Amino acid sequence: MGGVPLPRSLRHVAERAGGLILRALTLWQPWAWAVARAGKPVENRTWHPPPDVTHLAIHAGKTFDPHAAEDICDALGLGTLPLEARTHGAVVAVVRLAGCVHDAAELPEDLQFWWSGPHGLRLANVQPLEEPVPCRGAQGLWILPDNAHRLVLAQIDKGQTTGPELVR
Hints:
Elements: E1 4-5, E2 15-16, E3 19-20, E4 23-29, H1 31-37, E5 42-45, E6 55-64, H2 66-76, E7 90-101, E8 119-134, E9 141-143, H3 146-157
């Protein structure tokens, strides 16, 4: 079952039975891998995030961008990307949305490579999932299907991620 796009009427819904409604953002690979495993601190969008979104599930879409792969390898000093950068059609991490950047100068110089604007979603407390959770992605922000939502939160709740625990 696919992800459900987030209708405007539901933007202020903050809870689902049992806790957090986790919104997701689908990224082409290797960008999703870069967020989950390579320290990418910002995700560039043409829109400003809604104020009620505090956490995002990072979904690896089915599209792979070979030019981005070359750029990332060059920036990180890698010969090739690891195999996990080819994961697709699955949630690979959960992040806390820590604001929005509107200029590369708002980031430390060594992280400015990742910013292209016009709105850079600041990503913090990245929690890569040890086991990617398969599900269909969608454009924009969307709500994870119930089963994927449970599987993602189960990994976080069991401490099967690196980084600080997700606060609900």
